[in-house]
Amino acid sequence: MQHQKMPGTTPSHGPASAVNRPALFARYGTLEDLRYDYPLVLVEDDKGGTQFRPLMRLIDDALGAVAQPGPAGEAQRQQVLRLEAAIRRRVAAGESGRLSDLWRTSAAALLQAQGEQPFGPMDTNLDRARERLHADGMVIGCDAATPKAVLSHAWHAVHRDKAAAFRKKVDGLILRLSDILKADFMKSDEAHGAEALKSAVGQADSVGIDFGALSGILARARPVDRLPEDRLHRIGWALSVLGGQRFYGPVRGSELLPGQPKPHSYIFESCARALDAYRERLPEMVEFVKALTTAELEAEGKYRPAQHDPVLNAYDESDLTAEQEALLPAALVLLRDGEDDIAETVRAFEALASGLPIKVLVQTDDILGTTSPEPSRHAFGGGSARLAAMAMGTNNAFALQVSSAHLYRMRDALVRGMRYDGAALFCVYSGATPSVEGVAPYLLAAAATESRAFPTFCYDPSAGPDWARRFDLATNPALEADWPGYRLDFEDGTGQRLSIDTAFSFIDFAMCDARYARYSQPIAQKDWSEKMLPAADWLTLEPAMAVARVPYVLGINAHNELTRCGVAEKVAEAATRAIDAWRRLQELAGIRNSHAERLLAAERVKFEARTAEAVAKAVAAAAAAAPASVGPAPTVAVVASVPAASPARAAAPSAAATAAPAASAAAAPPSDLPWIETARCTTCNECTQINAQLFAYNDNMQAYIVNPDGGSFRQLVEAAEGCQVSIIHPGKPRNPDEPDLPALIERAKAFA
Amino acid sequence: MSENLSACMMRMVETDYALSDYQSDIAPRWCVGCGDTAILTAMQKLCRDEQLAPEKTVCVSGIGCSSRLPHYMNAYGFHGIHGRALPVAEGVKIRRPDLDVFVTTGDGDCTSIGAAHWIHAIRYNMNMTVLLHDNQIYGLTKKQASPTSPIGQKSNTTPFGSVLLPLNPLTVTLGVANVSFVAQAVDWIPDLLYDILKKAFHHRGLSFVRILQRCPEFMQHRFDDYVRDPSKMRILTHGNGLRLSPEVSRVYKNQETHDPLDMGRALAIAAIADEIPVGILYNDPSVPCYDDLRAGERPSTPALVETVLREEFDKVTIWPDDAEPVAAE
Lengths: 752, 329
Hints:
The structure holds 2 protein chains of 2 kinds. Chain A is of the alpha+beta class.
C-alpha cells in the first residue's frame, strides 16, 4: 500500500495544496496501469454467453490455454500483458474499435517499439495468444458513452435471440402452409398442362415426348380432392400476414425487396415515442396473432371454420397476452438524466407501470445535481439515485441500479432485465461527472457505489413471489454496515509508518466534486482538537451529542498529503439522507429489518425471563433437596442444563461456523461451508473488495472466510472466479432463496 | 407466442380415433399364422392409444412380406424399393419433422441389400421407429436363406444347409456409433410387443426394434421351443425399461433387471444364444439426432430459397447506381 505523507504543522491551504480527493483514493494513481473490468469487450454473437467480458479475462483465458505454466511461459505472459496494457492505453486515449483490430495495431506498434521483427518470437507468441481469444467485438473504456453502449449491446443480443426464435417458428409455419398450397397446386390443370410438364422435363430431354398426351393421362389419373376455396383463401391470408410482418427485419439484406415496407424500429429517444409506436402497432400485432394462430391450426389440419371463425373475429387488442407479446421485440428507450425534459421521466414511469415490454435506460452523469438556491435540504440532487427505488414501487417493473464500475459484475441481472417480459428500468451512473476533475470515471463510479451515493441493487419481479427472492443488494460492499471501512497506511512528518481504519462515506464521495469541495475544507493541524470525530462516527450521534463534536473526513491533495477536512452541515445532511436511503434498501433486503429486530428483542426478553424463572426454580429445588450440602455445585449443574443459546444468538450468524483466521488451509473443511486455502493466498485484494464482510485478511494478510453468511453465494462464486490463484471454494449455497442458484452452483463446480 | 390461443382452439376440435381408423380397406394378404399380423395390430393399437392423426403418420417399407404393412395401415405410406426404406424415411423426416415416421423392414431388406443404409441410419439417429420383422427367411420369394437364417438352414438357395453363422442384428446395431435405442420383441407375446413399441415410439431418436416372428410357411418350427417353453424367454425389466404386468410376470418367470444405459451388459444379452431376450437392451436419450443438428436456424421457406439464389446470381451482377442491395439488419 502506498504510504501517505502527513502535512505536519503546515496548514494545507491555498490552491497548490487544495484537498481534492478522499484519502482512500491515494492508492489509485493512474488506472491505465491496473488490470480491472475495463476495457470491456462487447462480444459479438456470444450465444448463451455473457455478451460482454473484460479484456483482462479474455486475455487470462487465452494465456491459460497457450502459455506454459511456470517460468517456461513467463516470457509469453509478459509479452501478452504488455500488449494488453498497450490496448488499455489506446482505449483510455479515446481510441475505439474491434478487439481484433486493436490487437493488430497495438501488436505492430509494440513490435516496432521493442525492435522485434515480424514473425519473430514475440510476434509468434502474441499471435498464438490471439488465436485463443475466442471472442471479438467492440472494445470500450469506462466513460460517458459506456452505459449506452453496454445496454444497447445487451438489448441487441437479446433481440437477436428473439428474432432467431421468431423466424424459426414463423418460417416453419410459412413452409408448412406453402407445402399445403403447393400440394394442392400439383393437382391443378395448370401444374399438369403440357407447357408445365415440358418445362419440368427440360429442353434436352423433351424431344420425342408428347406432353399433350402425357398431360391428358395425368389429368385423368390425378386425385380430385382439391382444397376448398375458403381454406385456400385463409391459408393465403395467413401467409401474406406472416410473410409481410414488420416486427423483425430480414437476416439477409437482399430479402428486403425494393419498395417493401421497412421493419419497425424499436430504439427510441423518448418514452412518449415508444408508447405512441406501441399503440400504432397494436392493430398489426392483433392481425399477426390471428394469422399465426390460423397458421398453426391450418398446419395441423385442425381449423374448423364453424368453431374458430367466431373466436378469431372477436379477437382484439384487449386479448393480447404478455406471453404473446414476448415473441415480439421489446422497445429500448435511451434517456439521459439532465438532458431530457422532466416530463419524460414522468412518461418513463407511465411506461414502467403499464407493464409493456419497454426497456428504459436512464443514464446519469451527475448524482449530486447542481447546487440550487433552495434550502440545503434539497440542494444535493440525488434524484437520479432514487429513480430505480421508485420504479420498484410499480411492483411489476424490473429495476436495476448500477454504476458503470459494476456493470460487468451485474451482467446476469442486466440480461435478465432485457429478457424480462414486462417493463424494465436500468439506472446507470456513468462516473463521467463534468464537475469532477482528475478522477477517472471508473473510480468515481465505484466510489458512488462504495459511498452509498448510488448503491447497486436489482429488483426482479420474475424471480419469485417475495422480496427475498426479488430483491438483490448483495453486490454492495459491507452489506451490514452503514459505510464500508478500509485501512489507510500513511507516514507522519517523521517518516513513521502508521495506519488507521477509516470509513468511505457519502461525504468522501461529495468531496471529489469541485462544486462541493468548499463544504469540506482542510483544517490545519494546529486547529485539531479532542472534539473532532470522524464523520462516519459523528453521523451516528444523537443530535444533542453531535453539536458538541466536530466531524471531519480525511482528504489528500495533489501531493498525496493527508489532512482532516471539516464537514459542512449541508454535506452532513446529504450524507444523512444517503444513509437513510441505504438503510431502507437494507431493510428491503432483510438486513437489520426493523420488524424482525423488534420481534427478536421481544422474544429475547421473554426467553430471558423464562430462563431466569427456570434457574430460580431449579435452585430452590436443589436447596430443598440437599439443605446440608451448601455450595455452588447444584447451581452450576442447573445452569448448564439450560439451553445454551438464546434465540437472538441462534438467529445471528453463528460464530462457530466461521473459519478460524489462523486455520491451516491444508485441509478442506468437511462440511459444505465455503473455505479458502489461506496459506496460498497472494493478498491481491480481489475477494476482500467484493465483500469485506465475507472475506478478510488474517494476521499474515492472507484471506479467509470471516463469516460464511456475510455475503451471497454469488459473491463467493465471483470471488472464486476472480481469484488469481484459484484458492476460493464457494461450498454450497446457504440461502436457498438466492436468485439464479442453479447457474451459480454450476459455476461453482469448477471450484469444488 | 400464440400457444395458448392455438392450443385452446385445437382442443375445440375433438378427435377420437378408433383402431378401425388405422385399418385400410385392403385386407392383409399374409399367410395364416404369420407374425406380421401381430406386428400390424400392435402398431394400430399404438396409433390409437397415442391418438396419432392418420394424416400425420407415415409408414415406409422396402420389399418383402413385412414391407406390405403400409398397404394395411390407414396412414401415409411409401412402399419403397428393396433395401431403401430407411433413406426414404430419412428424406420424409428431414423435410417433414412434424410427421411420425415408422419403418417396417425385413431381415433380407434390412440386413442384406439394405445393410449399408441400416448402419448409417443408426448413426444418423433420426427421430423415427424402425421395426425389423425378422423371420430369418426370404418368405415373399418362397424361401431363400437370409443373413439371419440359422446355420444349417435348408432353403432354395442353400439346399444342403446354410454354411455361415447368422448375422445378429442386435449386436451389429449396438456396435454402431450414435446408437440410441435397441430392443427385441417377439410376435408371440403381444403385450410385450406393444409395450416395447410404445417405448420405442416415445424415444427421441432412432428406435430399432428387432421383432422375431414366426413364418408358418417356410420356417414352421423355428420358434416352437420358445413359444412352448416360457422359461426360454429372458424378459428384461427395469424402471427405465419394461415394467411387467402381473399376468405376464406370472408366465414369464425368467426375468433379468437390466439398466438400458448399460451397454456392456446389453452386448452380452444380445449375444445370448440359448434363450431369447425380450425387452429394452439399450436406451440413451442423450444421443443427438441428425434432424435436430441439421434443423438450422431457420427453415428454407420459398422466399429464402429465392433470396439465396438471387444472391448467387447477384455475385455476377453489375449493379446500376440506384439499385444497390439493402443492408442487412
